[in-house]
Design goal:
This protein has 153 residues and is of the alpha+beta class. It has helices at 11-14, 22-27, 71-74, 97-102, 112-115, 120-124, and strands at 37-41, 48-54, 58-59, 64-65, 133-134. Strand 1 and strand 2 form a beta hairpin. The structure holds iron/sulfur cluster (SF4) (2 copies).
Amino acid sequence: MAGDGTLRPRFWETVAPADMTPAEWEALCDGCARCCTVTLEDEETGELFATSVACRLLDTATCRCSDYPDRLRQVPHCIQVTPQTIASLDWFPETCGYRRVAAGRPLPDWHWLICGDREAVHRSGPSLRGRMVSETEAGDEPERFILGSEQEG
Ligand code: SF4
Ligand code: SF4
């Protein structure tokens, strides 16, 4: 049964987010790391701009959080994504697996649940692996690291 950490076949197409097990919900993350980077907001227009400046806890070489179990204590602004909060996280990329499934959209070919390869997001998807600079090294002008709109949608 899925409660033991296994994933039900094609659960993302058949199970509502609120009814997924914790393991199934976590599995929706594609590992792109785009939610672990600084987002800037134009104070006048409210427009949001993604940057390649990574959270200090992000391992920029692997795209993984270096202290996931304790992240919420170490980084107070880190977001715990849940079926209840995902709808309000409109600054997450459109490509995000959580956003896609919560909105009833299909997962892309490069998502590991579809292709079985967790490296595919880095080769063919929106991963920022190899393109980030840690906030500990970025200096005080994050505007210099604003990303284009590639891989959105
Ligand atoms: S943006 Fe979504 S899919 Fe990408 S790392 Fe964050 S939670 Fe996972
Ligand atoms: S604490 Fe970890 S999960 Fe949270 S934003 Fe930073 S790197 Fe990402």
